[in-house]
Amino acid sequence: MRYVVMPETMKELDGRAVREAGMPSMVLMENAAAAAEGVLEELHPMGRGWFVCGTGNNGGDGLALARRLHTRGRQVFVAVAGREERMSPDCRQNMNILMHAGISPVWIGDMEEWKRFFNPQAGDFLVDGLFGTGLDRPLEGIYGEIVSAMNASELPILALDIPSGVFGASGQVEGDAVQAEATVTFEHMKPGLLLYPGRAYAGQLFVRPIGLFVQPEEGFDGRMWEAEDVASAIPPRTNNSHKNSYGSVGVIAGSLGMMGAGRLAALSALRAGAGLVTLACPRSLQPEAAFDREIMTWPCAEENGSFGMTSLEDVLAMAEGKDALVIGPGLGKNPSIRMLIRNILDNIQIPIILDADGLNQMTGDLKNLGDRGAPVVLTPHPGEMARLLSWKAAEVVMDPIAAVEALHQQTGATALIKGSTTVIKGRGIINYHMGGNPGMATAGSGDVLSGIIGALLARGLDGVKAACCGAFLHGLAGDMAAAELGMDAMIASDIIAHLAGAYQKLAEAYS
Ligand SMILES: NC(=O)C1=CN([C@@H]2O[C@H](COP(=O)(O)OP(=O)(O)OC[C@H]3O[C@@H](n4cnc5c(N)ncnc54)[C@H](O)[C@@H]3O)[C@@H](O)[C@H]2O)[C@@H](O)CC1
Ligand SMILES: [K+]
């Protein structure tokens, strides 16, 4: 498991290591510089570096790194921007050490001084130590101009901790921000490196320890599941087992013209390892639903090619003996579906994943799901999330953490917001998932995720585990599909086809 911490938590950890344990803060800074040096050796083992430092501790990291390279014979050019009287003690000390080592940084007070200092042709890379997690307002004036000149130089930039201009808690950028080739972040991942637009500024991410041995008193702010975490959360198949050992999934999905959504969800559930999958469908669509031999179908009374309250009896009969239900893909807009879903939520005490039209239908009617006695997972994309919360879509995109927290709080369900970075909140801390690729922005991709999560719920995972492991498998299978077929040509069925490879990778990670 990789942990994600907010800037203020990082500050608390840093402060406690220093105050409670007597760890000198200069040692932490030196460790940060050494960690960054390791990354630089990987990316740019040769060449000359331009260092742009602020007067806070991020600047101190930069000055320490410059000195480490200089003492190893690498050529460095170092600039400091900011007010000298505001310099943090550790930054000042590193400035003194650097000067004793023979390098005098250039103070930059205006762009004329910058132009005299910076000559991209004379260097091979830039190091950004201007602002780190202490950023508390957008870059303005000289800082914005320096950053935009750094970006315009087209030299590769290594950002220390976080690209200057990106807010560590949210990934938001207002104005200029460093467009990094890579970012080395210290000790723990920060949300701003995971969430857009910050993620797009950070480039390749390196998380490196700096010797902080303390843990936050309130617990970590977030976590990222890694292959071994996912592998160990999914119960292994055992010799002495049968199909009922792996869960029976009921899928309630599809309508005239959208039966494919139901089939994709059902097939995904099966490929995600469920023992049995039953696809409930409007009666007239049964021939279409019955296309996959391994999937059982359950024709239901219908309302003009759609589910509706008329279907209730059949749906309840189908749900009997199931271990989880997937509700939503392709259900369409028939208004009586709302009552149908309400009845299912009230009368059936098994885990449920609610997605797509299932979510849209239930806008305003998703309270108290935490009291059901079995988990509910909600998987909206940002537009659906905005409708569910009555927020503007832009507000959801700006702050997906607040959005999942609000949805979880209002409904009691596990909330997963889809996106390039998926954010999940159920009981416990926030979960982030970074896998997947733009090739997965294709019809039916969400239905596949629903099916996978349905299978994992049926296999006994709780809401958070099913959502996190489901997002991981979905992303991994999507990445494998893209590697084989390319992002443009891959389709949702290809993600399903690569679930096999994704499970194999998990097995390798576990062994
Ligand atoms: N565990 C830790 O907390 C450690 C932190 N270290 C480094 O310290 C950094 C945090 O240092 P600081 O808290 O000193 O903060 P920064 O160095 O990020 O920023 C310095 C100061 O600049 C000012 N400022 C913020 N936004 C500004 C803006 N837009 N324009 C002008 N001034 C602005 C603020 O007053 C802020 O305190 C981390 O990102 C990391 O690089 C490392 O030295 C090692 C240990
Ligand atoms: K930085």
Automatic annotation (TrEMBL):
Pinpoint the YjeF N-terminal domain residues.
10-218
Q: Report the catalytic activity.
A: (6S)-NADPHX + ADP = AMP + phosphate + NADPH + H(+); (6R)-NADHX = (6S)-NADHX; (6S)-NADHX + ADP = AMP + phosphate + NADH + H(+); (6R)-NADPHX = (6S)-NADPHX
- Binding-site list for (6S)-NADPHX: 57-61, 132-138, 143, 161, 261, 330, 381, 447
Which GO-annotated molecular functions does the record name? ADP-dependent NAD(P)H-hydrate dehydratase activity; ATP binding; metal ion binding; NAD(P)HX epimerase activity
Question: What does the record note about the cofactor?
Answer: Binds 1 potassium ion per subunit.
Span of domain YjeF C-terminal = 226-506
> What PROSITE patterns does its record include?
YJEF_C_2, YJEF_C_3, YJEF_N
- Put simply, this protein is called Bifunctional NAD(P)H-hydrate repair enzyme
Question: What's the gene?
Answer: nnrE
